[in-house]
Each structure stands twice: as structure tokens, then as C-alpha cells.
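Intended use. Records like the one below are meant for learning the mapping from a protein sequence to its folded structure. Do not use them to infer anything beyond what is encoded.
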Amino acid sequence: MARSTPKAWHFWRKAFWTRPALLVLYSLLAPALGLLFLGVAWSDFQDGRGMTDAERCTGVDRSGSVHQDCLYESSGWLDGPRYSRGPGSDWHFFEGADTHEVQVGTVGSRRLEDIGRRPVTGLLWHGELVAFEVGGEVVESIEYGARSWTWLVLAGVVFIGGGGLLSQAATYKRRMAGGWWKVTSEQVGLMSEPTWRMTVASALMAPGMIAILLFAFGLPVWLVYAALFGLMPLVLLLPLLRRGRTASQRESAG
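Structure written out for the chain above:
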């Protein structure tokens, strides 16, 4: 079969950066970056645990609380949302002459919007605003407790899974293009029929992306991890279910 000429809009077939050899490079860089995210997450995990277990610094000098492992309560004015970009919003907290800017997920932002521009209690960790206390309830920012490192874990999982998909794409495209440095192929696309490598990578990347979306909307962290680890086995089982269905169809046709 003669190879088709790439169309003008088939940038993934014509572009220099999609050569199979470069896809192999990307497949190595992506999981390396993912492991780096996980390494940083471990450091933030220890800080996040200290934050949630810390006592309140009530009535102490703020300059001293910056160096203490405690949550400093500060009264101030809330203003926002100042800028919304998809899920979540930016909020400003005015503490006397100081202004703090913090990002809060969609669920928490709606709770703060109900308050309006009124005095609230801000919770500071080592001088950084990490949460608000509203009516006895803690409204968390993305820097509070488990949220400070969960996004790193999710990003690490997605990048590691992405590395596997890029590796599969490099193998398939090299076979179709006839070389590691060629970009033309007989078919459009980067993937062939599912393989074990593609299945495992998808079981990391797809649930990870869904979990990131849930995290961005400010849903509870336990629900984010439940979605992550609950969807992984389902994605792994999809090829088996597909094969079983195909076998049943063949038996029915026979």
C-alpha cells in the first residue's frame, strides 16, 4: 500500500518533534519528571502533616509564629473572588497593612462567597495564609494539609502514565514510518491495538487526570484518592472485557 502524503493539518505527522526517536526521549523525560513530583510530594507531606496536627497560636506575636510549628489565627477582611480560572478562585485576605493571596477550590470558594466582604479568621502557617475559619468550619486552600502535596502526587502519576503512552506511540510510529527518524506513515495517529504497556499507562494517566479535575474543584481529598485508586483497576480490566465481548461475538457469528 502506498504511503499517503501528510495533509497540511496533520501536524503530528509532519512536525519534527514527533519523530519516533524524539518520542522515546519524551517517554523517558515524562516519568523522570513524575518521579521528581513524587519526591517533592514526600517533603510536602511531612509539612502538611505538621500543619494539620499543629496547635493554634492564639494571642502570640505574629513575627514569632513565623518560626513556630503552629497555626496562627489572624482576623482580617476577605475580598474575592479576584480572578477565576476554571475550577477554583483567587482570594485576597487583608490583615491590617498586609495582603495575602490564596487559591481556593470551587467548593470552598462558594462557601466564602456566601460570607461576602466580612471579617473572617485566617489561618497562617509559617507566615503564609493556608486556610480560613468560618463558623467553626475550616475552608482549605490548595496549600493546606494534604492539599499541599496531593496535586504533586496526581501530577506524578499522570506524567509516569504519559511516559508509558509515549513509549507505545514511539514503537508504533517507528513501525509505521519505517525508521526512528521518519515522520510519514500509512495511518494517521499514534496508537495501534491496546497492549499491556498501553493498558498499564492508561490505568495511571486516565484516573490521574480525573482525580486532578476533582481536586481542582475542591472536593474532599479522600474522595480524590478514592476516584484515583478506584478507577485504576477498572481501566486495567477494560481490555479483558473487550476481549471477552469479541470472543462472544465470534462464537455467536460462528
